[in-house]
Amino acid sequence: MPSSALTDIQLPAPVLKGRGAIGAADNRYERLSRVALDDGWSQEEQPPPQTEVSFDHSKSIIVQQTALDLPFSQSLNVYRGCEHGCAYCFARPTHAYWGLAPGLDFETKLIAKPDAPRLLAEALRHKKYKVAPLAIGTNTDPYQPIERGLGLTRQVLEVLRDFQHPVGITTKAALITRDLDILAPMAAQNLVRVAISVTTLDRDLARLLEPRAPTPARRLEAIRLLSDAGIPVAVFASPMIPGLNDHELEAILEAAAQAGAQSASAILIRLPMEVAPLMEAWLREHRPQRAERVLSLIRQCREGQLYKAKPGERFRGTGPVAEMIGQRLRLARTRFGLSVPAWELDCTRFKPPPAPGDQFTLFS
Is pLDDT of 32 > 70? Predict the structure, then answer.
């Protein structure tokens, strides 16, 4: 057979059970692109990628936020990457900063910050530190599966409790209920608020869209347990994906209100950088008949693009479709007795505890 008859075949992007990203797309900083090829000889199936955890020994842990459309001024994340593997995750592009791919690498090659509790305590003791509510879970989920073994989020909460420091937590994991013994006393002092993300009530859709996240039923149960413990809980019906899950907005808010949520919010899907092609690939694989319609509706909310990060509009979008979702959110809040999530936490209680070796004073 002449060599010209031997043609490499480009493989379709792999669909892996329990993983949200389809394929392992290179990050935007790579000069070369890698493509899987099949010469027809190999018959071996590649094993699914396993989760790998490495450690980042950062020198600081609190990130100051300057965006005017965020309700908080500082945040903290103990993990880079997220094993939940949500196909739509806006945080995926941050993995490119570490030479990793925002696709499968984001959900299989995780980075933990074991020094986070110590660094936080040191930052809070600094003489120039100004207390303000600290947001946890703004980039990756603080209660993703590896937290069960590493416990870094719990250690961070222990530091905040000891300093009587206000904190807001966002998660879609029921594991947060493990820390009720810390969160409930803090809530009694108006030091904590929690937001639980519920994207859909459809278990089958959630399994494909958020493959390693807890089921919708478990998230609602977490809302109930947190609420019963006296912890203010908001439901984030996010992201809203027009043509895919936006029809569930009212049902999500109703179920959350019945479980004890006090407030509610919704954010339009955000597809920055590498996330757009990853989400498009997901749609064409799992919802092929609906893919073009969903992509068209997203573009109608983003001035003809799949994403436009304009401050003040990036969370809600523009145009008739986005405005309708916003109006439905406002009406549903009123209907189910839910308020707008607030960050009104008590900053006056903040007090660094005695450090090891400190001398006691004669006067308080």
Answer: no
Q: Give the mean model confidence (pLDDT) for residues 288-296.
A: 97
Distances in Å between the Cα of 273 and the Cα atoms of 28, 144, 167, 257, 260 are 8, 23, 30, 35, 36
Strand partners, 233: 194
d(CA 98, CA 325): 36
| Three-state secondary-structure class, residue 275 | helix
Kind plus residue range of the DSSP H or E element containing 209: helix 203-209
Region of residue 177 (left: phi > 0; alpha: psi -120 to 50; beta: else): alpha
User: The tokens of 281 are what?
Assistant: 């690939």
pTM: 0.89
Taking alpha carbons only, the member of 187, 212, 160 closest to residue 49 is 212
Q: What's the whole-number mean pLDDT along residues 245-264?
A: 98
User: What's the pLDDT score for residue 221?
Assistant: 98
Cis peptide before 354 (omega within 30 of 0): no
DSSP per residue, 125-149: HSTT----PEEESSSS-TTSTTHHH
What is the CB neighbour count within 10 angstroms for residue 6? Answer: 9
Q: Which amino acid is at 215?
A: T
Give the strand order in the sheet containing 79-80. Answer: 52-55, 109-112, 79-80
The answer to whether residues 219 and 234 touch, using CB atoms and an 8 Å cutoff, is no
CA distance 75 to 170: 11
Instruction: Point out which residues pair with 265 in neighbouring strands.
Output: 236
Long-range contacts of 322-328 (CB under 8 A, 24+ apart): 322/268, 325/240, 325/242, 325/246, 325/249, 325/266, 325/268, 328/249, 328/250
In the three-class reduction of DSSP (H, G, I as helix; E, B as strand; rest coil), residue 63 is classed as strand
How many helices (H) does the chain have, and how many strands (E)?
11, 12
Reported confidence tier of residue 3, pLDDT bands at 50, 70, 90? very low
Torsion angle of alpha carbons 319, 324, 327, 329, nearest 10°? -110
